[in-house]
Amino acid sequence: MSRARRFLFAHGNWPAQFGALGEWLAGQGREVVFLTQREGAKGERVRVHVCRNHRDVAEGVHPYVRGFERAVITGQAFARAAVALRNRGWIPDVTMAHAGTGAATFLKDVFPQTLHVPYFEWHYAHPHPD
Hints:
Elements: E1 6-10, H1 19-27, E2 31-36, E3 47-50, H2 66-87, E4 94-98, H3 107-110, E5 115-119, E6 124-125, E7 128-129
Parallel strand pairs: 1-2, 1-4, 2-3, 4-5
Antiparallel strand pairs: 6-7
């Protein structure tokens, strides 16, 4: 791949793990967009777009799948924001997204030719893993 110039970061909380990298890339002349769910989020050189879930987890959903439903709903919010970018002609060369919260779920569908880099994070509570 030639030198990537457009980067899309997706994480529920700006700046999270990607803020410093995104700001650095923007400082190097790259176009950087950050999708987040944090209200009022703003970057210095990064364009920040807030994604809102269209609803919360439904009443009566089995407790074992509540997290999965929340991730799908979150993925839909990020996908809608990504589609809006694509419809304006902005297509990233690289996406980086948190893999465990739903933010990255549908980005490959929106940008099939883009290089996707998932951020994996393992949370655990000692002495037993989550």
